[in-house]
Amino acid sequence: MLKPAPRPAATPAVEFIDLAARDESFEEAFLAGMSRRDKAVPCRFLYDARGSALFDEICTLPEYYPTRTETRLLKARAGEIAAAAGPHAALVELGSGSSVKTRILLDRLDRPGAYMPVDVSRQHLRAAAARIAADYPGLRVVALCADYAAPFDLPHTEGRRIGFFPGSTIGNLSRAEAKALLGAWRVRLGPGGLMLVGVDLKKNPAMLEAAYDDAAGVTEAFIKNILARANAELRGDFDLARFDYEARWNPEAGRVEMHLVARGAQRARAGGRVFSFADGERIHVENSHKYGLEEFAALARAAGFSSKARYTDEGRLFSLHLLEA
C-alpha cells in the first residue's frame, strides 16, 4: 500500500505591519545626489543583490575585523545580556540582517516574548522574519516595515523591550543623527527598556583604512557597484575603470570617508541625464564614524540612556554597549 506523500509544513505565521511611506527609488536618489554640487549617493542603495553578496564577502576578509569581533563578543556576553533583559523580553532589531547575531541572543534569552525586526525593505524583511519564525516555533514574530529613524509606535508586548542595533551601523550616522536616533528609541522602548548597540572603536588609522580598502579589492567593487547599478537600472554608461576608490581616515571628524574619485575629466549618462566630472571630482558614498568608549557613553547619556554595561575585546577593536532607558 502506498503511503501518502507528507504534507508540506505550514508556513510559520508572521505578523506584518507596514508603516513605511513609499520608498524613495534608486533612480530618484541617484539623480538627485549626482545633481548636487558635492555629488553623493545614499549608502543604503549599495545593497542590491550584487552589493549584498559583496558585503557578505567583505565580512569574511582578514582586514575586516568588525563582524567577527562583534560575533565573538556576543557569544561571550549573551548570557549576561539575557540576564539583564529578564524573562519574556521582546527583542527589537533595527535593520533585519542575516540574523546570525540575532540568533545568538534569541538562543540565550529566557522565554523571549517576541522578536520584532524593523526594516524599510519589505521583501528582505519578510524573508528574514520568516526564517526566524520557522526556526523558533512558538516565538511571536512581528515584522515592522518602517524606517527605524522615523516616528512610530511598537506593538504591545508583556516583557521588557531590548533594542538591538548591531554591526556598527550607528557609525553610518553623524554624531548628531546618532544622538537623535538613540533619543527616539529611548522613548520608544519605554522606562527600563534596554538597547544593545555595536560600536566600532577608534584605533590605528592604517588598520581602519585597511578594513575599508582591502587588498583583494572587494570593498572597492562593493562601492563601485553603485555605478554598476546605475548602468544596469538607469541606462547609464559610467566607465567604472575611470573612477578610483578612496577610503581615508578623517581624524577631525572621527570617521572613515569613502569616495569614488573621477580619473580625468569625463561625462556619463544615467536616467536620461548627463553628468560632468572634473578631474579629481568626488562622489561621496559612505561614512563610518568611530568612537572612544567614554565618548559613546557620553553620547548615550546625552540621549537619555544610562550605561548598564560595556564590553570590548582584548585588542579594544570593537565594543558592545548595553544601555538602559
How many helices in DSSP terms?
9
- Helix fraction, binned, reads 25-40%
Which stretches are low in confidence, meaning pLDDT under 50 for 5 or more residues running? 1-10
The separation of the N and C termini measures 64 Å
What is the CATH topology descriptor of the largest domain? Rossmann fold
Please provide a brief summary of the model:
Helix content is 34%, strand content 24%.
Tell me about this structure.
The protein is of the alpha/beta class and 325 residues long. The protein has two domains: 106 residues, no CATH class; 172 residues, Rossmann fold (3-Layer(aba) Sandwich), CATH 3.40.50.150. The protein is 34% helix and 24% strand. The chain is built from nine helices and 13 strands. The chain has an eight-stranded mixed β-sheet, with helices on both faces. α2 packs antiparallel against α8. The protein is globular. It starts with 14 loop residues before the first strand and ends with a strand. The relative contact order is 0.17. The N terminus is likely disordered.
Features:
Dimethylhistidine N-methyltransferase, 13 strands, 8-stranded mixed beta sheet, Rossmann fold, alpha/beta, 3-stranded antiparallel beta sheet, 2 domains, 325 residues
Secondary-structure blueprint:
Layout: E1 15-18, H1 26-34, H2 49-58, H3 66-85, E2 90-94, H4 100-108, E3 114-119, H5 122-135, E4 142-145, E5 161-165, H6 175-189, E6 194-200, H7 205-211, H8 218-233, E7 243-250, E8 255-262, E9 266-270, E10 273-277, E11 282-289, H9 293-302, E12 306-312, E13 318-324
Parallel strand pairs: 1-4, 2-3, 2-5, 3-4, 5-6
Antiparallel strand pairs: 6-13, 7-8, 8-11, 9-10, 12-13
Helix pairs in contact: 2-8, 3-4
